[in-house]
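User: Just a sanity check before I run the rest of the batch. Below are the structure tokens for the first item. I only need the designed sequence back.
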């Protein structure tokens, strides 16, 4: 990692703490490694990303339905899926500094930290174990789910019966997953507790590759709508040696994460999982999870196209993409140029003087039922603008002494710094138009 990259990540992590996006979990006790708490702005950004994904993938489509499964499910699910047998990473330890690494992340037999000798590799299980019930023995062992998709597969028949969906169709869900990673690092990029956004699209085998290409294009379109710059995102097809045991083809959507090897890191995976998962659960459970193709009057086991991304990684990409430092009239400002649909705070009401706070609060209360809005009367107007720029707030509304007479306010746009003055009575309508269409000067 270069000094510039280290500096950028330090600046972003500092901003996330300062503005209430992300805190280290248990910080007052020294912090828990790779565990993160999302603050007031962070939880809003996460919610906005998840809502955008859900609207794009489910709510606006007739061919995708949703579900929300339990974090702890029957342990035989993980036996059938192959996780209990195969979900391990090779781990090595440094005999000198006691560092711990994945073997496939280390070149040679020397420690990347101190040059010390490494131990022989050994398997490290990635699933979190716990016990369910009064007994604490092997019969009570259950697991925190390492992915959300398996619950979709085991509920396939239930959802077909309940919704009467016809092939092709998808099942989507978002939720927590847990992996006991050996080396979880790089802020929220890789953590042991994370949130997935997954969709499994079931189709007849002959059409699988067509739908693979379709969903690749759809997912790229979504990232574009989040405002991520096209130069910072790409696709990379997996070589045969990289393919998971369940996939016939796989492709990663990658982002220019500054710490990633080679400059690119996985943002989302799109895979043709074939019929592997449904057949595995049919064999293990003895239940019929096939689909009756009424047109040809025969049962088939559908192929599955999977789109699988993480809310944390998407949030990190959005923040990195939006972060910038610039100089305006000799003064530096830090800006999060978040897309207005993702911004946790849509607008801030700023009285020019505390003497105007009572009147400005009326404007604040006018907007509050319609948008997430903040009221800030502390410090100079310049400092308050800077705070909102750092938080990613697209619009600042200034109530000044002229507002007492003309019943108007000034809207300042975050990126262009352009301003317009409008009557208070049209403020809500104007903000709605700005949220829908963007700043007038940008048209």
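Assistant: Here's the designed sequence for the first item:
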């Amino acid at each position: 990692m270069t000094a510039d990259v280290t500096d950028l990540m330090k600046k972003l992590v500092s901003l996330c703490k300062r503005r209430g996006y992300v805190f280290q979990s248990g910080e007052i006790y020294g912090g828990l490694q790779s565990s993160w708490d999302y603050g007031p702005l962070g939880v809003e950004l996460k919610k906005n990303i998840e809502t955008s994904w859900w609207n794009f993938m489910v709510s606006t489509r007739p061919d995708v339905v949703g579900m929300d499964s339990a974090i702890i499910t029957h342990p035989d699910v993980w036996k059938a899926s192959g996780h209990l047998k195969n979900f391990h990473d090779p781990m090595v330890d440094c005999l000198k500094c006691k560092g711990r690494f994945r073997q496939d992340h280390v070149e040679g037999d020397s420690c990347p930290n101190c040059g010390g000798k490494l131990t022989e590799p050994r398997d490290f299980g990635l699933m979190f174990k716990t016990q369910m019930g009064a007994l604490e023995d092997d019969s009570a062992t259950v697991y925190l789910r390492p992915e959300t998709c398996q619950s979709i597969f085991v509920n396939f028949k239930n959802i077909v019966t309940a919704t009467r969906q016809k092939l092709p169709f998808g099942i989507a869900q978002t939720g927590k997953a847990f992996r006991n990673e050996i080396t979880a690092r790089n802020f929220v990029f890789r953590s042991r507790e994370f949130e997935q956004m997954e969709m499994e699209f079931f189709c007849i085998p002959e059409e699988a590759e067509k739908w693979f290409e379709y969903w690749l294009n759809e997912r790229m379109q979504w990232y574009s709508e989040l405002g991520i710059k096209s130069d910072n995102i790409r696709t990379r097809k997996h070589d045969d040696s990289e393919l998971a045991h369940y996939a016939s083809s796989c492709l990663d959507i990658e982002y220019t994460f500054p710490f990633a090897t080679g400059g690119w890191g996985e943002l989302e995976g799109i895979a043709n999982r074939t019929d592997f998962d449904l057949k595995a659960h049919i064999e293990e459970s003895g239940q019929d999870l096939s689909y009756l193709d009424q047109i040809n009057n025969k049962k088939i086991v559908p192929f599955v196209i999977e789109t699988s991304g993480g809310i944390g990684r998407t949030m990190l990409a959005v923040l990195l993409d939006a972060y910038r430092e610039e100089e305006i009239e000799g003064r530096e400002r830090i800006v999060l140029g978040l897309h207005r649909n993702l911004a946790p705070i849509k607008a801030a009401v700023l009285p020019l003087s505390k003497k105007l706070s009572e009147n400005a609060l009326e404007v604040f209360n006018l907007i509050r039922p319609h948008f997430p809005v903040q009221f800030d009367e502390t410090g100079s107007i310049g400092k308050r603008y800077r705070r909102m720029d750092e938080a990613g707030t697209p619009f600042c509304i200034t109530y000044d002494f002229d507002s007492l007479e003309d019943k108007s306010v000034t809207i300042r746009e975050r990126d262009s710094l352009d301003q317009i003055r409008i009557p208070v009575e049209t403020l809500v309508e104007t903000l709605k138009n700005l949220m829908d269409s963007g700043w007038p000067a940008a048209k």
